[in-house]
Design a protein that fits this description.
It contains 22 helices and 5 strands. It is mainly alpha-helical and 490 residues long. A 5-stranded parallel beta sheet has the order 3-2-1-4-5, sandwiched between helices. The longest helix has 22 residues, at 281-302.
Length: 490
């Protein structure tokens, strides 16, 4: 029986190592049609900001070019929300005589509900659906504790189980780009350059375009550059934010699926004598960061309350966070008077990315020193990040706030001044992003509380909005009181 496949792209904007696309092409003898859905209201409700939307759109444009080479037309559909997806996809499949819908699974609650509705709608219309695990190396519902079959809630045993499974079963292969289709299923439409949608009315700082060239080719080039120049010293370099080459900066490409986690793992294994662990400590450390990405997706599936504005740790579900709009605004704008915090926030606001060490620092400042709800910071990050990814963002924020799985103990609170002195000793990062502090001696940058009023006035730099010592003590007192009242448990 002749078949025509409908490939639904979502967070998988690539042709290489795309499970659903590969299967769609293998199954079709009347060509493949690709579709991408812009759900403008839903994106905004999920806190997608202009940087992420812009990067998705530019990545989609690059994918359109790659698909033309494969003789696969890409159609872009514009809708309002996820509720409209089943009817729109069914209509499109009927119009273009597509027999089977192919897509790669997403794991957030709203996305899973949408996909179930799509499957039901296609079944009613006599069309098939094939869905694939593609975002992770190991599907996120596979690994369970041996004792009781529960989802893991602590990273270290999760990583051991993850490593054991791959050592026993082998690492999944990286699939090549599919063969070129002999015929195009429809005429290949031009990319909708002039498309107008509320979701696409974006405005991003110019540096974002420089930091984040879009598309599969750019993603692979960044991976290869990092493997060649940064991977061998990753463990030593990764914590220093002024060292741009010390991290891979692949997070944006992983978030939109311009590169796969499997491709990243294979690139590391090639330099690690095919060892997943107990190889080069530098490379082992980077592989561990890939496993953290897997772990947070595992948490989404096992504990969906984190997708619904809930704390992972139930004892903190009614935590008495403070309402302090003035301090929150200062934190957002990079005007806290704490140089390392302000530099990090200004980096985020300018290039849509923040160094991971500093994500932890600024998150602890917000949730511990200022005692402001982690969800406010989580939303702000999603609105500003190019690499906005719900699982990673929520997991990181709940870790820093001590409300999450395998979280930092509430009494472990980063001191922003000691973090600054340790990881930006010469002040190079601070002075890059807080130019009013250029010329200030490095040692002074780590003790802004000692700036004289005259110096502050001359620099135009604000007083610190909190005292690190007293606010740390306050946070510990509040956490102890809540823990004593609520108990603990997942």
């Amino acid at each position: 029986m002749s078949t025509r496949s409908l490939m639904w792209f979502r967070a998988d904007l690539r042709t290489v190592d795309n499970r659903a696309l590969h299967a769609a092409c293998a199954a079709a003898d009347r060509g493949v049609i690709a579709v991408f859905i812009v759900a403008s209201r839903q994106w905004r409700e999920h806190d997608w900001g202009d940087p992420r939307i812009d990067f998705v759109w530019r990545s989609l444009k690059s994918l359109h070019v790659d698909l033309v080479r494969l003789n696969i037309p890409l159609h872009v559909l514009f809708i309002d929300g996820f509720d409209d997806v089943p009817a729109e996809l069914c209509r499109f499949a009927a119009t273009h005589e597509c027999d089977t819908l192919f897509y790669n699974l997403e794991y957030e609650v709203n996305e899973r509900r949408r996909d179930e509705a799509v499957k039901a709608a296609f079944a009613r219309n006599g069309r098939r659906v094939r869905a694939f695990h593609d975002q992770t190396v190991i599907p996120p519902d596979v690994l369970r504790t041996k004792s009781d079959g529960r989802f893991y809630t602590v990273f270290s045993p999760f990583r051991r189980a993850w490593t054991t499974m791959l050592n026993d079963d082998g690492v999944p292969e990286v699939l090549p780009a599919p063969r070129r289709m002999e015929i195009a299923a429809t005429a290949i439409p031009p990319f909708p350059e002039d498309a107008r949608s509320p979701a696409l009315a974006v405005n991003v700082p110019a540096p974002i375009l420089e930091w984040w060239p879009a598309g599969e080719t750019a993603a692979n080039e960044r991976l290869q550059s990092f493997v060649a120049d940064g991977l061998q010293e990753y463990k030593e370099r990764r914590n220093f934010p002024a060292d741009i080459g010390g991290t891979s900066r692949l997070s944006g490409y992983l978030a939109v699926g311009a590169i796969s986690a499997r491709a990243c793992l294979h690139a590391a294994l090639e330099r690690n004598r095919q060892k997943i662990d107990k190889g080069n400590p530098q490379i082992d450390t980077w592989i561990s960061e890939l496993v953290w990405r897997e772990f947070y997706r595992h948490v989404l599936v096992g504990y969906p309350r984190v997708c619904m504005n809930g704390t992972f740790r139930r004892e903190y579900r009614h935590f008495p966070f403070r309402d302090d709009p003035e301090s929150f605004d200062a934190w957002c704008a990079g005007r806290t008077g704490i140089p390392i915090v302000d530099a990090a926030m200004r980096q985020l606001n300018t290039v849509g990315w923040m160094h991971n060490r500093l994500r932890m620092v600024v998150a602890m400042v917000l949730t511990k020193n200022l005692l402001i709800d982690f969800r406010a910071g989580e939303r702000y990050f999603m609105n500003r990040l190019v690499d906005g990814d719900f699982a990673q963002n929520n997991g990181g924020w709940q870790w820093s706030a001590s409300t999450g799985t395998d979280a930092a103990p509430y009494f472990r609170i980063f001191n922003p001044y000691s973090q600054s002195k340790r990881f930006d000793p010469e002040g190079a990062f601070i002075q890059t992003w807080v130019p009013e502090l250029e010329g200030v001696e490095p040692a002074a940058l780590h003790h802004p509380e000692k700036f004289s009023p005259e110096l502050r006035l001359r620099l135009g730099y604000p007083d610190p909005i909190f005292d690190a010592t007293s606010t740390r003590a306050r946070a510990i007192e509040v956490f102890q009181a809540v823990s004593a009242t609520e108990g603990s448990g997942a």
